[in-house]
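Hey all, quick one. A colleague (J.T.) asked me to put the adenosine-5'-triphosphate job into the tracker so the inputs and the structure tokens live in one place instead of scattered across chat threads. No bug as far as I know, just bookkeeping. Sequence used:
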Amino acid sequence: MIINRLIAKNWRNFQQINVPLRERQFIVGPNASGKSNFLDIFRFLGDIAKAEGGGFQKAVEGRGGVSKIRCLSARQDPEVAIEIHISAAPDEPATWRYGLGFRQEPRGHRPIYLTHERVWREGELLLDRPDTDDNAAPHRLTQTALEQRAATAKFREIARFLRNVTYPHLVPQFIRFADAIQGKTMETDDAFGQGFLERVASVHPSTRRSRLKKIEHALKIAVPQFEQLEFIRDKLTGHPHLQARYSHWESDEVWQREDEFSEGMLRLIGLLWTLLESDSLILLEEPERSLNIGIVSQLAPLFARTQRIRRCQVLISTHSSTLLAEPCIDGTEVLLLTPTREGTSVKVSSDIDDIRILLENRFTVGEVVLSRTKPKHAAGVSLIK
Ligand SMILES: Nc1ncnc2c1ncn2[C@@H]1O[C@H](COP(=O)(O)OP(=O)(O)OP(=O)(O)O)[C@@H](O)[C@H]1O
Ligand SMILES: [Mg+2]
């Protein structure tokens, strides 16, 4: 399953979004144009669907409340709304549609409540809130049906899909300084990868071995002199660890643990593990960070291949022309974010005439689309004394 359309209103720096989505979708735009905010819409839906994480109220509060989420240029309209279409493939009609709207009461203790929540399956409206129960007990509108296991019986498939949305934003420092941080986790959904080793530890040993073998194979290509990657548990503490061995060391007995791995190596391990693990939607923030350009140039085909094998969907924010230099990237696979006075606009790059013409003339999206995201007077940055 994939989300093949996103429609949203008043979310952060977007007044309106209405775009189709492909299995592999790149999101490009200048700094602060809203790439992370765009990805956060899907993370928000995932947070709602994870009832144990606190559901809708916690998902809004965790983002600073409605006043922080609602677009500052929204003028009179107080409602924030999101709708997704889910289908088997990008060009197929939607099997499912899920939509919700919410706002905050301007007075009293200012509850956050749903203005609507709707679910359609193959065009048939299965849920249409507020319903008679909501009208009889308005406090019910502080919770979505998505987060209530009993209520989702009829649309379990989308609830499961959204619960499995992953945002693997592995921050090497959190792995390196795990002892100093002493188990303090920053996010309930482990967005910073602090629970990464526990995730590796939790899968069946044969699955873990098979995934680590594939990662080891990639690391042998990416990291000079790298030889071997292993999972171990510390004999004293029982904590899970990864360890690596390199060919240029004198003894075969010398292994390094993950807190000594380089940033790029840690990021690559985290990225590959996620691609091997997920069968839902993966949200990747600038995966090019800390990686050598030779590896970055292989990421786009890697996403396409994993997508084909695992049937997952990958949304990727990026600033990298190397990543987008791959000739097989279609103009429909790149969304261009352009800040305007009325908020950021989101367009499929090949819907913009001059971009489409250049792409038809064998320019790559890296050449054509990224140049559009450059600030006009970028050279001025170097003049700062
Ligand atoms: N409610 C809101 N209304 C309007 N703008 C908002 C709102 N919330 C956040 N923003 C704006 O969103 C911008 C940040 O967007 P975001 O972090 O998604 O950018 P980005 O494209 O990921 O940037 P980068 O490339 O630097 O990572 C900030 O300029 C912030 O002011
Ligand atoms: Mg960002």
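Adding what we noticed when we looked at it: Residues 205-222 form the longest helix (18 residues). The pocket of magnesium ion (ligand 2) is lined by residues 35-36, 317 (CB under 6 Å).
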